[in-house]
Amino acid sequence: MFDKQVDYAVEAAGYFKELASKGVIDDTAINRMRDLEHQGDDVAHSIIDRLDKTFITPFDREDIHYLAKEIDDIVDMLNTITSRMKVYKISGVDRRLVEFAGVIEESVRAVACAVKGIRSMKHSSFVSRACVEINHLENVGDSMRDEVLAELFETAKDPIAVIKWKEIYQDAETVLDVCEDVAHVVESILVKQA
Amino acid sequence: MFDKQVDYAVEAAGYFKELASKGVIDDTAINRMRDLEHQGDDVAHSIIDRLDKTFITPFDREDIHYLAKEIDDIVDMLNTITSRMKVYKISGVDRRLVEFAGVIEESVRAVACAVKGIRSMKHSSFVSRACVEINHLENVGDSMRDEVLAELFETAKDPIAVIKWKEIYQDAETVLDVCEDVAHVVESILVKQA
Amino acid sequence: MFDKQVDYAVEAAGYFKELASKGVIDDTAINRMRDLEHQGDDVAHSIIDRLDKTFITPFDREDIHYLAKEIDDIVDMLNTITSRMKVYKISGVDRRLVEFAGVIEESVRAVACAVKGIRSMKHSSFVSRACVEINHLENVGDSMRDEVLAELFETAKDPIAVIKWKEIYQDAETVLDVCEDVAHVVESILVKQA
């Protein structure tokens, strides 16, 4: 079930990168992102419902719960950013945001590898590598956001634009933070299985 | 004990609507809201203390803990918004905020129904309906906030006013998010009891 | 292990106060704060790893997990504020921030007392007093932040400065909120041991 949930996350991250590259957030974009969010939500709820009815679980009950919630948060956040860009009437391609969306997509792909790999201990070194990658991309995103914000505050003449972009970049960085949280849970599951 | 806690939440939501309708946040308002917050906090602590000393609980220990915390967060957030309005020296009636406060009041009332209903399986269909209502109101609030923000960013000449109102509407929407979280816990308790 | 973790938090809080008093955030400051954050993070991970491999624990497994996470959040937040001040190119001494940093240092010191005291029931009245102190300092910080923000919004001509300082003071208050969360966990551990 987690496979399906992370697949939605990968799709949402890919679509977000596409939207950033096109620089147009129209109703089609909003609807498709919202659909992905709803579908991801449904899978998350199914996982938790099934968990509530099951006595024996492959991993710690709490870890499963937390994992479902965090993967859900990835899609949620991407949906939030997209609808925010529409609300703020942001249009045109922002080169930095495209770059950032690329980092997000890489990180979510690594999350998918890590989550799909935990079923079998055979893949544990592969899973560990994905987790290291996710941690690395979080640091990359941190620096990117700081650079963008420093530039924004230094050159900005329009405070309203500062308010808008500051929030968008902080939200974008939050997606990478959530991916890092997933990596931590996955690493902790590996430790317990070892 | 949860009955008492949700009653404080209902009272706080009703009072918040009254304040929004009057458009005056004076010291009396601040004190009464803070008192409600303290009283709600005390009940939450009593619930958790008693939980820590009890071996057998009617529902999952974690669910009880989480429920107490979330209901507490509703009153907390209403208190935060109220004191923020005072700090920001916001006065006068904002028609949209009155509407929003109305949606919050409805949602908190539905939370009270849901929470009071979980004691007996006889009410399970009634509880489910309240949860559906809470989810619906969260979507309503989402759209309202987006509309207000879109208008605010489009027409605003004063960036300081944008900063103030953006935060107030986002916090108001957070109250509905917390109500939705309560609905999810209640639904999960229903599943486990079934 | 918690002793080491809170010692890093105390060091970070002391260093933050020093930085606020000097009014200069240079690369040395950024690096030292980031190192403290990494070291604190490593201890937190060791605690959680060891917890995952241990069957019998002195306190509730969840409480230990939560405590490690919250103490980690203190150092995280101080690191966030520091790097934010660099990004926002804030320089010069802000008297209010120095005061606030002083309250944070006091609160983190009380957190250290409380956390170090839970090992032995002999210190329980001492631990309780530290928790009361933490709660008190959170209220102090709340009022300080409200005063600063009220003044900022009233006198500010530069919206960009409002955006910067509003975030810094809100983050500073968040450190005190996290300390209060630690106090709640510690109090709940005391109740269970009694």
Q: Can you give a write-up of this model?
A:
3 copies of one chain form a homotrimer. Chain A has 194 residues and is mainly α. The first copy, chain A, has helices at residues 2-22, 27-53, 61-87, 95-117, 124-155, 159-193. The two termini of chain A are 23 Å apart. The model of chain A has no long low-confidence stretch (mean pLDDT 92). Chains in contact: A-B, A-C, B-C. Chains B and C meet through helix 2 and helix 6 of B and helix 5 and helix 6 of C.
Keywords for this entry:
homotrimer, 194 residues, mainly alpha, 0% strand
How far apart the termini of chain A lie comes to 23 Å
Strand content of chain A is: under 5%
Sheet bearing the most strands of chain A, described? none
Please give the radius of gyration of chain A in angstroms: 17 Å
Number of strands of chain A: 0
Give the overall form of chain A.
globular
The quaternary organization reads as homotrimer
Could you estimate the helical fraction of the residues of chain A in percent?
over 70%
Runs of chain A in which pLDDT lies below 50 for 5 or more consecutive residues are: none
